[in-house]
Amino acid sequence: MKNDVYLLGIDISTTSAKALIINDKGKIIASATSKIHLYTPKPLWSEQDPNEWWKGIVKSIQIAIKQANILPEEIKAIGLTGQMHSLVVLDTKGTVLRPAILWNDQRTAAECEQITKLIGMHQIIQICGNQPLPGFTAPKILWIRNNEPSIYPSIAHILLPKDYIRYHLTGDYAMDKADGSGTILFDLQTRNWSQALLDKLELPYEWFPPTFEGPEITGLVSDFAAKMTGLQKGTPVVAGGGDQAAQAIGVGVVENNKIAITLGTSGVVFVPTDKPFIEPNGRLHSFCHAIPNTWHLMGVMLSAAGSLQWYHDQFAPTVALGKLIEQSKNIPAGCEGLFFLPYLTGERTPHADPYARGAFIGLTIRHTRAHLTRAVLEGVAYGMRDNFELIKNTLIENNKANSNNAEKLQIYLSGGGTKSTLWTQMLANILNKELYLVNTTEGAAYGAALLAGVGVGIWESVQKACQEVIVINQIINPEPSIAADYENLYQKFRQLYPALKPYY
Question: What is the residue-wise DSSP string for 297-354?
């Protein structure tokens, strides 16, 4: 019998606009993506056209509905997710004033220093849980004030990518608390905009939209959006969450005994917490989760699978990526003394250094392309371990009475990098931990759809939704002898960044 209850998850990522339709059993019914272009008009800059997001998602929604062969009114709710931190500025009429400045844009080092001087590093970390970094939203706003005086006075609304889509869908300005906290203008304790931070930075409070918990309904599909997309007018749209919060939900990481590792363009290590934990030096990000009254710690390396993609495109563009990886399978662990530092676009965690740079170290005449390929894979995995160790140690420090819990975290692995069995096994060995793969592979869009279902009562909580639809379908165990070799190699890798820092 045909199921007549469906949910739509929308994801505005750095590369595409995705529409995903699932049913109330969690089964994927249809998925469609439209490519989004990224522009780098100057060194360190990374921008996109928000209007292209809207055009792309309109196309993806239309294709997904047709592919699913359902009626628009059978979609009971819509959830939103997308790239975090990226700045969209609108005028009083809702018109985009300039291209969006993205999460991986590195132009705002001076503005980060400005924020630190105005507020003080200790105070800003205590309020928002993070130190100012170029990827965050707040320094981007100050950059416009400092560098584009013809645009700044016209700003009336500050949004993030998925919330620009929300505005087109419903006509409402709104944001979820997970994405809001990623602007570093949030008070982590109150889960809302920090009047103190806005006052210190002289940013008008009215620029910033009301914020909602992930499953809360923020508006209804408008007549305009219904005509554009083919959706039913009046369909509820929930707050959703930033891509990493939604990604964690999409793989079932909704309790504090689980940790999510995402091996995507960037690499993310993510753990839910029942209170805001702050790493004293701000090396980890502490944000609100998309689950009500839940927070999370997150470490981010900027170029994970992105490092592999760069390597492939520059040095082996005619070789299929899978074949390129396969050619490195017989190279021994450690690549016979060759290391790769994956800091191609600077780094966030654990080094918080926009000027960090990538490097191959230890090259000899013996090394082949296969060695270099494996070195890239290993370098990214070492970087992921850097993140994991910092999160584990922070949890232990904040909860010494239950330090064993941090050692027993269940690690759920997702992202495009999981397509490589060689890479996932390597990561298990370098972490020396079991890794779990689940039945869901659509990540953030899937998490957004689950939030939509909770919002309209299909499931009573996000935890219940995940328990019902997400199951472990593979466990990757570390190989003891290889893990022991990698332990020694990892300690050598850790010495490379501080040795090279003076040259950056």
Answer: EEEEES-SHHHHHHHHHHH-TTS-HHHHHHTTTTSPTTGGG-EEE--BTBB-TTT-BT
Structure tokens belonging to residue 88: 């969209």
Phi, psi of 498 (to 5 degrees): -60, -30
pLDDT at 300 over 70: yes
Burial of 419 (0-12, 13-18, 19+ CB in 10 A): middle
338 contacts 363 by C-beta, under 8 angstroms: yes
> Per-residue DSSP letters for 396-428?
HHH-GGGHHHHHTPEEEEESGGGG-HHHHHHHH
Domains 6-244 and 252-439+471-504 share a fold: yes
Tokens of 111: 């503005």
Q: Write down the pLDDT at residue 345.
A: 86
| Cβ pair 128, 197 in contact under 8 A | yes
C-beta of residue 456 within 8 angstroms of C-beta of residue 494: no
The verdict on whether 172 is a catalytic residue reads no
Radius of gyration over every alpha carbon of the chain, rounded to an integer in angstroms: 22
When pLDDT is averaged across residues 406-425 and rounded to a whole number, the result is: 90
CATH code, residues 6-244: 3.30.420.40
Amino acid at 427: L
Q: 131-154, pLDDT tens digit by residue?
A: 998 889 999 999 999 999 999 999
Query: Of the listed 163, 176, 243, 386, which one is catalytic?
Result: 243
CA–CA separation, 270 and 413 (whole Å): 11
Neighbour count for residue 155 (Cβ, 10 Å): 19
Confidence band, pLDDT 50/70/90 cuts, at residue 4: confident
Looking at the structure, give the CATH architecture of the domain made up of residues 252-439+471-504: 2-Layer Sandwich (3.30)
Token pair for 94 = 């809702």
| Beta-ladder partners of 258 | 410
Type and span of the H or E element at 242: strand 241-242
Q: For residue 26, which phi and psi values (nearest 5 degrees)?
A: 85, 5
- Which residue, 28, 8, 7, 29, is CA-closest to 19? 8
Beta strands in 91-177 (DSSP E): 100-101, 157-159, 175-176
Asked if residue 53 has pLDDT above 80, the reply is: yes
Provide CB contacts within 8 A for 121, sequence distance 6+: 131, 282
Angle at 411 between CA 487 and CA 241, to 5 degrees: 130
Spell out the domain ranges in the chain: 6-244, 252-439+471-504
Contact 475, 413 (CB under 8 A): no
User: Which H or E element spans position 56?
Assistant: helix 50-68
